[in-house]
Design goal:
TIM Barrel; six-stranded mixed sheet; single chain; 37% helix; 164 residues
């Protein structure tokens, strides 16, 4: 395989170096969204997965079209579940929190909400750090008030280094 082919496979997510051994990390989970299409939850039920994070929203108005079905079927498959929001730099934190709250039920038995905070797929704006942190903080406060849980922030090295 040439260097170019390896780079392309890695860049598009077909080949990664992040598959730790089951013995080191026995509790396993996945994240899903409409990008995976219709999930075959019965097959997942028979595997070794314990939890799933399901994409619920993005920005101020996008609602994942598969969220409601995935949310219900993950429970039927016996998985612990949580929802995630793709945070965008193009909308206010309050507007994004309202979108998430209007989509994801407050369930004491669910995993904490997750904020997907990265550059890939985000708007072209790269606001100053103070502006991003202000909006992210607003989002987090609203989420904590509604769900009574602190969210998890899923972050890439680049977005972490630039903003967090």
């Amino acid at each position: 395989m040439t260097f170019t082919a390896v780079t392309v496979l890695y860049f598009y997510g077909y080949w990664r170096f992040n598959y730790p051994k089951n013995s080191q990390y026995p509790i396993r989970g996945i994240d899903v969204s409409h990008h995976q299409g219709k999930i075959e939850w019965e097959k997942i039920k028979d595997g070794d997965l314990k939890f799933v994070f399901i994409k619920a929203t993005e920005g101020g108005d996008f609602k994942d079209p598969e969220f409601k079905r995935n949310w219900a079927e993950a429970s039927n498959a016996g998985l612990l579940k949580g929802a995630y929001h793709f945070f965008t730099f193009c909308k206010s934190g309050i507007e994004q929190a309202r979108n998430f709250i209007s989509t994801v039920p407050a369930d004491r038995n669910s995993l904490p909400p997750v904020i997907d905070f990265e550059f890939v797929g985000n708007c072209d704006k790269r606001p100053k750090k103070d502006a991003v942190l202000k909006e992210l903080s607003s989002f987090i406060r609203k989420i904590e008030e509604n769900y009574e849980k602190s969210p998890i922030i899923y972050v890439t090295y680049d977005s972490y280094n630039q903003y967090l």
